[in-house]
Design goal:
- The structure is a single chain.
- With about 130 residues, this protein is mostly helical.
- It has one domain.
- About 75% of the residues lie in helices and about 0% in strands.
- It is built from 8 helices and no strands.
- α4 packs antiparallel against α8.
- It starts with a helix and ends with a helix.
C-alpha cells in the first residue's frame, strides 16, 4: 500500500498537478473534508492521507488543512467496511468467532455515524476551534 502510494506520488504528481489543488477549492474546510472522506473510502484512509500529503502545504492554511484531513479521514473510516483496514480486521475476527459482519450490516450503522460525526467535526474546524 505504501509502496504504491509513493510510486504514484513520484510518477503522477507533477508540480502542475499539485498546484491544481487550488482549482479544486480544497482551501474550503467543507470541500476538503468531503474530498478526504470520499477518497478515504475509495482507497482507505491511510493511503488517502498519503495521497493528499503533497497538496496540503500549498493551501492557504496548511495547519487547519491537516486537522481537517486527519479528522475526516479518521471518521470516514467508519462509513464502510473498506474505509479502514481496522474494520476489515474486526470483520474477519468476527467471522472466525462465528458472528459474521456483512457489508450491509456495517453500512447500516456506518452511514449515519459517519455523516453525523463528519458534519460535527467539519463544523467545529470551519468555525476555527
Amino acid at each position: 500500500m505504501f509502496i504504491v502510494v509513493a510510486g504514484a506520488e513520484k510518477t503522477l504528481l507533477s508540480p502542475d498537478i499539485v498546484a491544481s489543488a487550488k482549482n479544486l477549492g480544497l482551501d474550503d474546510v467543507w470541500r476538503l473534508s468531503g474530498f478526504t472522506a470520499v477518497l478515504s473510502n475509495i482507497m482507505s484512509n491511510v493511503p488517502a492521507v498519503l495521497a493528499l500529503r503533497p497538496f496540503i502545504p500549498g493551501l492557504d492554511d496548511p495547519e487547519r488543512a491537516w486537522l481537517v484531513v486527519a479528522m475526516s479521514s479518521t471518521l470516514a473510516g467508519n462509513f464502510t467496511l473498506l474505509g479502514s483496514v481496522a474494520n476489515l480486521i474486526v470483520a474477519e475476527y468476527a467471522r472466525v468467532s462465528g458472528t459474521p459482519l456483512s457489508f450491509a450490516a456495517f453500512f447500516k450503522v456506518g452511514l449515519p455515524l459517519t455523516l453525523v460525526t463528519l458534519l460535527a467535526g467539519t463544523a467545529w474546524l470551519a468555525l476555527g476551534f
